[in-house]
TrEMBL record:
Protein name from the UniProt record: XRE family transcriptional regulator
Pfam families linked: HTH_26 (PF13443)
UniProt cross-references to SUPFAM superfamilies, sorted A to Z: lambda repressor-like DNA-binding domains (SSF47413)
Coiled coil: none
Amino acid sequence: MIRVLLVQRLDEKSFREKRRITLSEVSEKTGISRATLTRIANVPGNVTNTDTLNALCKYFECQPGELLAYIEDEEASS
């Protein structure tokens, strides 16, 4: 499964900037709906599109590989 590391990137950016950054702020700055960001943050395996990933990479000033992680599926490992 591909996992979007939104919460981790958000924590890192908040730490770097020494301020609290909310999903509402990310929504406002990226044009991604708050509901979509909440799903990305809270639903494992949530499917998103490249436009959303592009906007998040631009906001966090990162590469897609810094925003995505591959997690082995539980079924495949059993």
